[in-house]
Design goal:
Keywords: Membrane, Transmembrane, Transmembrane helix. This protein is mostly helical. Helix content is about 55%, strand content about 0%. It has helices at about 5-30, 50-70, 95-110, 125-145, 150-155, 155-175, 195-205, 210-220, 225, 240-260, 265-280, 295-320, 350-370; strands spanning about 185, 330, 340, 345. A hairpin with a 2-residue loop joins strand 3 (about 340) and strand 4 (about 345).
Length: about 400
């Protein structure tokens, strides 16, 4: 990873990302959305209904993505090489693994109302321990599979920094959601005061990035899956091309504010273009940097990790009790059908670019504040964590 990272592109990219929807809205409409300032954001009354054409295009794109995952050789990838014979020290599960699993299971039962009625007052507070228990348990599995490499084991303070970044990044999405007709909303909005929701949701949002990263780390320990995407087409963009992508990202973000319904997929794509381009222009490594050498594993696996992570999360959400303030529903234009839990089936494909954005967001913020953004536990794509005895 380059040590020479320029901070001005990081600052300007972030300012542009936040300012573009606000300025666009004020210049065109002269006011803020009707739901502005209400938290959690309510359901929008004017979201378009189902549309066969948009749904058909979405299905075609989804089938293309699935075919890429199934047979990457059809998209210019060479067959994977034999998995490297890597010596992994034999270690036991770390001390935080089992307690994390127990915390997750107890919180899971609490959220679903499976514990005695005397525990009901704790239900509104089950979301955060459920996810942090899940994160700690899975981090322990990663630790075991890598012979002692995990974020909690080697860099626990970084976990806290990732959690803080996670909170900021998802609050940005809640901010952006005001300008896009509330693609998601929280119907259990009378449990806390508005201030209480802001505080509690802030704690809940700390789990987004850590949970995605730990699932990603686990996937990278599966050699056949990782090597499947390591020998793809090499793509290297000039600095001018990256600058054009930055401009495209900002223009598309402005367009999303103007036409939120027909351009709703840009909610997940435009911020990724802006932040990835700004981070690249700053000279920082991103998961897209590996594509220069034909290694697509980082971007593919972080996307898969996010989809898998939130397939579990959507299940937890769907069966939670009415006392769960974090319960969410979707009202996505044109394709709000064929739900798997609360999420429309096509919506799961939006998790792919969202996962890439989460990683880039962490790299951006880490570099901005002089932190080491390394999260990989398996060598091959970029910087890798070191065991304490190797550091």
């Amino acid at each position: 990873m380059s040590a020479k990272v320029r901070k001005p592109p990081l600052v300007l990219g972030l300012v542009a990302l936040v300012a573009t929807p606000l300025v666009t809205r004020l210049l065109v409409h002269g006011d803020m959305p009707d739901t502005w300032g209400k938290f959690p954001p309510p359901k929008s009354p004017d979201v378009p209904g189902f549309n066969w054409l948009v749904f058909g295009l979405g299905v075609a794109l989804a089938l293309g993505i699935l075919e890429f995952l199934r047979a990457p050789q059809r998209f210019g990838f060479a067959p994977p090489t034999a998995a490297r014979d890597e010596h992994v020290p034999q270690v036991r599960f770390p001390p935080w693994c089992v307690p994390g699993a127990l915390l997750a299971m107890a919180s899971w039962a609490l959220m679903w109302g499976e514990l005695p009625e005397a525990a009901a007052p704790l239900v509104p507070f089950s979301f955060v321990p459920l996810w942090w228990g899940f994160i700690l348990a899975l981090d322990g599995v990663v630790y075991r599979r890598t012979g002692g490499l995990s974020l909690v084991a080697t860099r626990p303070w970084t976990v806290l920094a990732i959690a803080a970044t996670s909170c900021v990044s998802w609050y940005f999405y809640e901010y952006l959601n005001y300008f896009t007709r509330s693609n998601w909303y929280y119907p259990n909005d009378a449990i806390f005061s508005q201030c209480g929701y802001l505080v509690w949701f802030g704690l809940a949002f700390t789990t987004v990035l850590p949970s995605i990263f730990v699932v990603y780390q686990l996937l990278t320990t599966i050699a056949p899956l990782r090597t499947r995407f390591e020998r793809g087409p090499k793509v290297e963009l000039s600095r001018a091309a990256v600058q054009r992508l930055l401009g495209l990202g900002l223009a598309s973000l402005a367009a999303l504010v103007l036409w939120p319904a027909p351009l709703f997929p840009l909610l997940w794509l435009s911020p990724l273009l802006v932040l990835a381009a700004a981070t690249s222009l700053a000279g920082a490594w991103t998961p897209f940097s590996a594509i220069r050498r034909g290694n697509w594993a980082p971007v593919v696996l972080i996307g898969l990790a996010t989809a898998l992570n939130y397939l579990v999360g959507e299940m937890w959400n769907f069966y939670s009790t009415p006392q769960n303030p974090n319960f969410w529903k979707y009202d996505v234009p044109y394709v709000n059908v064929l739900h798997v839990y609360e999420m429309p089936l096509l919506g799961y494909f939006g998790y792919l670019p969202f996962g890439m954005l989460c990683w880039v967001w962490w790299i951006h913020h880490a570099r901005l504040f002089g932190l080491d953004p390394t999260i990989d536990v398996v060598a091959g794509a970029g910087p890798t964590l070191a065991r304490r005895d190797d550091a």
